[in-house]
Structure formats: C-alpha cells, structure tokens
Automatic annotation (TrEMBL):
The lineage of its organism: Bacteria, Bacillati, Actinomycetota, Actinomycetes, Mycobacteriales. The keyword Ribosomal protein does not apply. Keywords: DNA-binding, Transcription, Transcription regulation. This is IclR family transcriptional regulator. PROSITE patterns: HTH_ICLR, ICLR_ED. It comes from Gordonia alkanivorans CGMCC 6845. Pfam families: HTH_IclR, IclR_C. Residues 4-66 form the HTH iclR-type domain. One of its GO terms (molecular function) is DNA-binding transcription factor activity.
Length: 262
C-alpha cells in the first residue's frame, strides 16, 4: 500500500510539472499537490535522475524533459521538429543571456543560411535581422564549423578561387585562417570576433545527424559582453543544446530538413 501511495504522489507531481509550460518551483509543486515539500523534493530528484523532469539551475523551476515530450509527441514533420528546435533555442538564449540561432550550410558555396534565431534577454544585443538570411562562411562561427569539417586541401583550393574571400580581411591570411579551422576541428567549436561586423562576437558548434553535420548552432552578442573568457562556458552550453537537437532530429522521418533543400 505504501508503494501504491508513492506512485500516486509521483504521478500527481509529474502531472503538476506537465501542466506548467513555464516551469514550476518546488514550493509551487508542494502547494498544488498538497504533498509535503520534503516528499516533493525527493520525488522531483528521482524524476530528474531518470530524465523525466529537468531543473533549470538559474530559475530553480522544474520542466518536463525533452525525452518525455518527444515520447508523448513525436516529431513527425518539419514544422513540429522546428518548433522543438525553437524551444531549445529559447532555453539556450536564457542560459547564455545572448542571442542564439541555427544555421545551415549552402551547398556549393562558402555561405551559410540562418534558419532560426532567438533574441537575447538583454535590451542591448545583436541587431534584429531577417530570417532566413545568407552570410559568408568565413566571417561566421557556424561557417567556420562547416569549413573545418572539409578536407583542408579542398577547402584551401575552394577559398583561393572565391573572389569574395580573397577580397575579405581573412583572405589576406589564408594560412592563418586554415590553422584556425584546424583548431576548430580539434576542439569541436568555433568562435568569431569583429569579423561579421565590428563589435560582434559569436561561438558555434556542430549539430550531427546520422553521421553528417547539416546544421550548426550559435550564440552571439556584443564583443564586450561575450568575452574570450566566456567562450568555453558558452561552447559547453552549445554542446548540450546540440545534443538535444540531435535527439529531436533523430525522431523525424529520414530526409526531413529544417530549412530549404540547399
């Protein structure tokens, strides 16, 4: 009987978290379920350990985990998958306190397309720009991610033959740029500073799907706020979000694309 009572309490706690799309704190769960706070705490910790709920360390609110949301509502099409991705980007923007987004490489060009973007919680951040939009790969952190995955000799040849790259500031030091790509490939993330536009900085990491890297996600903001010291921390947040996006895309039908077929 004691076990049955615990199961009922666990279900009530889980239902309360599920009914709170913006998350809910421990005190709120205890109040709404009429279960002692200490008992709710133990139940929530057990649910978190099993990846049923997650705790936002900043807000101290519990949310349903992505695994449970995917189990209850599979990503059967592009629009559903993109809605999950946007939700993950919103969470990332809150964690990093900067603008973030998801990009796709444009095949046959040294260009990336911004497919999704979530604004920074700060009043001062990256300027609002149209989505989707095209950007030169060599000036962006996501572009560097995509370029770093290619054969170095082929990338060199491709960049040498690109007049826009040759005319850019990076084109004046191709060897240095290729060395940066090698570092990016080794550490698993890229960064840019004062490249796409003066005073702007960003960090990006790849999103892997079935052995390929069709997308990359990024966090960007003013260079005075997104300092070099913050880059490793932001890179780690990006890795976790990329893994969640990979889990979302793994549940979509083969061939599903978040952006146009490029």
């Amino acid at each position: 009987m004691a076990d049955a009572g615990l199961v009922q309490k666990t279900l009530r706690v889980l239902q309360t978290v599920a009914a709170s799309p913006n998350g809910i704190g421990l005190s709120g769960v205890a109040r709404l379920t009429d279960i002692p706070k200490a008992t709710c705490h133990r139940i929530l910790l057990s649910l978190a350990a099993e990846d049923w709920v997650v705790l936002n360390e900043d807000t101290k609110r519990f949310h349903m985990s992505l695994s449970v949301l995917l189990m209850l509502s599979p990503t059967s099409d592009r629009d559903t998958a993109l809605s999950y991705v946007n939700r993950l980007l919103e969470t990332l923007a809150t964690q990093a306190m900067e603008t973030c987004g998801l990009d796709q490489a444009v095949k046959g060009t040294n260009t990336v397309m911004v497919l999704a973007q979530t604004a920074s919680p700060h009043n001062i951040g990256l300027g609002r720009r149209a989505v989707p939009r095209m950007q030169p790969a060599w000036s962006t952190s996501t572009g560097k991610v995509f370029l770093s995955l290619g054969d170095p000799a082929a990338v060199r040849q491709d960049l040498e033959s690109d007049p826009q790259f040759r005319d850019s500031s990076r084109g004046r030091d191709l060897d240095g740029f290729l060395e940066e790509l090698a570092v990016t490939a080794d550490r698993g993330y890229a960064s840019s500073r004062d490249e796409l536009e003066p005073g702007a900085a960003s960090v990006a990491c790849p999103v892997r799907v079935n052995g390929t890297v069709p997308y990359a996600i990024w966090v960007g903001g003013p260079a005075y706020r997104l300092t070099p010291e913050r880059v490793p921390e932001i890179a780690e947040q990006l890795r976790h979000t990329a893994q969640d996006i990979e889990r979302v895309l793994a549940r979509t039908p083969p061939g599903t694309q978040l952006g146009p077929a490029l």
